Amino acid sequence: MSLRLRLALLFAAATAIVIAVAGVAFLWQLRSAQIGALDAGLRVRADALAVLIRTAAPPAQGGQQGQHQGQFPAADEESQVLTPHGAVLYSSSGGGAAPLITGEWLRRAAAGTVTFTTGVEGESVRVLAFPTWTSSRPVIVVAGASTGVADAAQSRAQAVILISGPAAVIAAGLAAWALAGAALRPVTRMRRRLAEITGRNPAARLVVPSGRDEIAALAVTMNALLDRLQLALDRQRDFVADASHELLTPLTALRAELELAGRPGRSRAALEAAVTAAAGDTDRLIRLAEDLLLLARAGDGATFLRPGLVEVPGLLAAAARAFAGQAGARGVTLEVRADPALTVTADADRLRQAVDNLLSNAIRHSPDGGTVELAAARQHRDGQNLVVIEVRDQGPGFPPGFLPHAFGRFSRADVGRSRAEGGTGLGLAIVDFIARAHGGRAVAVNRPGAGAQVSVELPA
Q1: What is the pLDDT of residue 239?
Q2: What is the structure's pLDDT at 340?
Q3: For the chain, where do the domains classified as CATH 3.30.565.10 start and end?
Q4: Which residues contact 142 (CB under 8 A, 6 or more apart)?
Q5: What contacts 188, CB < 8 A, 6 or more positions away?
Q6: Positions of CATH 1.10.287.130 in the chain
Q7: Measured distance CA(152)–CA(302) in Å, rounded
Q8: Alpha-carbon span 447 to 397, nearest angstrom
Q9: Which class does domain 308-459 fall in?
Q10: Looking at the chain, which residues constitute the CATH 3.30.450.20 domain(s)?
Q11: Residue 311 vs residues 22, 145, 299, 323, 343: alpha-carbon distances, Å
Q12: What pLDDT shows up at residue 182?
């Protein structure tokens, strides 16, 4: 069922309920007003008759309305004076008239004023009765009037409601159908436009309707969503293109080395060199595949951390020992400084991976005989306790235009664009991802003197 049809049916149902409630209330109010008017007229006649019989003898039989032979005529009124036992002492309709009240109502009237509606000769009659005294004995004064006029008005009002009510419900449903169609027409246009937007035309956008209503706000929100989707699509395409380019280089080199090794007449030394080069390219491919897998987990939001209590000084010392050989080959000194007993809740393997990436970059960009500092300390910043791990080198630092993109995937500074020495451009991206996965961040700056500094800030 369409939203337009649901709105029309809902509006029609609400209209039917309102008309039904209003009609019942109107009929009840009309009936109450009519009965009240009848009771007021009956009270006036009964009081006048009571005054008359208390001061003088009752008027002649039939003196008020004429002779009716005991039948209560339509649209007529009748007054009676009865004994407490129900005998008719006086009747405005003439002699032989039956009493208007008998039985239980007669007993109630003897005790006090009563009003009720009853049937007389097949006709509805409103009756008022109360006790009074003549000069010699107690009597009951009764006044009655036909409710025919009131019943006819009630029937006409009910007929009007029954006839006009369904017509009003249908009209309300049709009006709601038309209004819903007009209100949802921009939504229909947007739906059709969205159906036309595909991967081949990602730059297409919705036309924002004029005005500042909810439909216009929806169009603006959808356009913002399309902008984000296009940005994500562009990033994905760039990521796939860069990953393919990075994989192509070691694969091409590996193929060339294997082809050379397979040529006849190669010496043992040449074969060993080819195998060593192929092994290096294979290691590069493995590292690149692992990095791409890790970043893919970052893209799909996979949870991979195994947090635990990590002793930061021990982790930094282990990293420094692992890179001691690489640093020694360049004459680079590694200095480790960390607060004693400094701990943090983190994934030890991933945190070690981030530190290793930073150390590898720092050693590669440090001058021969330089120093790489590896430090960690607890800091309090912006009302938050942090554990900050910093890696500093004495190299040329980051180009100023590169700093905003330092943690982007496959981002490399101009001085490090060579794939032989500049890496894949995924190291800092992985550091940033690991920091954010722990609820922290990574920061890259140039030191005031010379060299670069990269910090990993984690919640303490």
Answers
A1: 65
A2: 83
A3: 308-459
A4: 46, 79, 80, 81, 82, 99, 100, 101, 109, 127, 128, 129
A5: none
A6: 214-300
A7: 78
A8: 8
A9: alpha beta
A10: 3-154
A11: 77, 104, 29, 19, 5
A12: 82
pLDDT tens per residue across span 149-187: 888 898 999 999 999 889 999 998 899 888 888 877 787
Q: According to the model, what pLDDT value does residue 419 have?
A: 43
**Topology of the domain comprising 214-300:** Helix Hairpins (1.10.287)
Residues in the chain with pLDDT < 50?
63-75, 301-302, 415-422
Which amino acid, 276? T
Return the pLDDT at 382: 80
pLDDT at 146: 87
Residue type, 21: V
Question: In whole angstroms, what is the distance from residue 250 CA to residue 158 CA?
Answer: 92
Question: Which pair of tokens denotes residue 329?
Answer: 């080959």
CATH class of 3-154: alpha beta
Residue 242's pLDDT is what? 61
- 3-state SS of the chain is CCHHHHHHHHHHHHHHHHHHHHHHHHHHHHHHHHHHHHHHHHHHHHHHHHHHHHHCCCCCCCCCCCCCCCCCCCCCEEEEEECCCCCEEEECCCCCCCCCCCHHHHHHHHHCCEEEEEEECCEEEEEEEEEEECCCCEEEEEEEEECHHHHHHHHHHHHHHHHHHHHHHHHHHHHHHHHHHHHHHHHHHHHHHHHHCCCCCCCCCCCCCCCCCHHHHHHHHHHHHHHHHHHHHHHHHHHHHHHHHHHHHHHHHHHHHHHHHCCCCCCHHHHHHHHHHHHHHHHHHHHHHHHHHHHHHHHHCCCCCCCEEEEHHHHHHHHHHHCHHHHHHHCCEEEEEECCCCEEEECHHHHHHHHHHHHHHHHHHCCCCCEEEEEEEEEEECCEEEEEEEEECCCCCCCHHHHHHCCCCCCCCHHHCCCCCCCCCCHHHHHHHHHHHCCCEEEEEECCCCCEEEEEEEEC
What's residue 130's pLDDT? 92
| Exposure class string for 41-58: b at 16+ Cβ within 10 A, else e | ebeebbeebbebbeeeeb
What gap in Å lies between CA 9 and CA 389, rounded to an integer? 65
pTM of the model: 0.48
